[in-house]
Design the sequence.
């Protein structure tokens, strides 16, 4: 039997109906994925049952789609060392970013089989002290833990809330078309997770320029799930009930600080895991056919040129 977590009845039903999951077939499909990895000289991947199952679910149990997602997951991560390498939670900068809580998975879901709600607060970071790449790197550690642990995220998907309060020209000026294309590819093509919605609050002047460029890199389905609510929390409550939100957002789920504290401890406990992660990725010299390097993946040449967001 595969070494995977049992699901509650509601999530098992959703996995069956929406992701074509047949429990009796999982062992066979995991073996097929492992056999494919063994014949793929360019990929060095984790091969734990639970990890590989996330990619089967991300491909709705199509083996070919799961293979594509897994290959792209490691390909893009290897091509983005500025976002994915040196992820030590005890590094001075990473530790401070974790304590600021710019990325927080909220503990409650609307239903037992509901999507995981993620709160992003980029404005809590100091842009003169931290680059946007460092913020993404810190956030990626939390997302990797959830990829490993969170069945609501893996089966029902993610619903993001982006609180842009506190964002300044110092933050916005760090975004570039290159960076936005990289992040969109990381989230769309190189992730087994489904996006169920993204809601933006407190958008600062200049945000629209970046927002429109970012949307241009997204597929139609994801574009249709993006909403901007200004500073109107009431509009957010139409999508996310108050009982799920921290009190700082007019919610009933307690203050943010205990959530931050819990995630700091959890990420710190994964230090060895992130060190281990350094060994996984792709070696494009060994890929059958054409190699996939940053230029061919992202298609925008050159360094991180800055945007004019006046």
Sequence:
């Amino acid at each position: 039997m595969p070494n995977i977590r049992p699901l509650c009845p509601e999530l098992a039903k959703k996995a069956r109906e929406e992701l074509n999951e047949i429990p009796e077939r999982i062992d066979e499909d995991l073996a097929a994925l492992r056999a494919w990895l063994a014949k793929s000289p360019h990929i060095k991947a984790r091969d734990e049952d639970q990890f590989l199952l996330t990619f089967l679910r991300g491909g709705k149990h199509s083996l070919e789609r799961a293979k594509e997602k897994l290959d792209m997951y490691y390909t893009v991560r290897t091509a983005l060392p500025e976002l994915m390498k040196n992820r030590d939670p005890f590094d001075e900068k990473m530790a401070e970013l974790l304590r600021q809580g710019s990325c927080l998975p909220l503990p409650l879901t609307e239903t037992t089989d509901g999507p995981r709600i993620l709160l992003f607060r980029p404005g809590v970071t100091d842009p003169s002290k931290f680059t946007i790449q460092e913020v993404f790197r810190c956030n990626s550690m939390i997302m990797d833990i959830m990829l490993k642990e969170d069945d609501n995220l893996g089966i029902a998907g993610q619903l993001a809330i982006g609180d842009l309060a506190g964002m300044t020209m110092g933050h916005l000026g760090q975004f570039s078309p290159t960076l936005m294309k990289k992040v969109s590819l990381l989230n769309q093509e190189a992730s087994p997770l489904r996006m169920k919605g993204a809601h933006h609050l407190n958008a600062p002047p200049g945000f629209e320029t970046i927002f429109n460029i970012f949307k241009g890199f997204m597929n139609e389905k994801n574009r249709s799930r993006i909403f901007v609510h200004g500073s109107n929390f009431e509009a957010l409550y139409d999508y996310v009930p108050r009982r799920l939100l921290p009190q700082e957002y007019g919610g009933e789920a307690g203050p943010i600080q205990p959530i931050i504290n819990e995630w700091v401890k959890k990420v710190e406990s994964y230090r060895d895991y992130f060190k281990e992660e350094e060994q996984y990725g792709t070696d494009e010299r060994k890929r059958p056919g054409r190699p996939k390097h940053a230029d061919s993946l992202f298609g925008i040449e050159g360094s991180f040129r800055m945007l004019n967001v006046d």
Remarks:
- The radius of gyration is 19 Å.
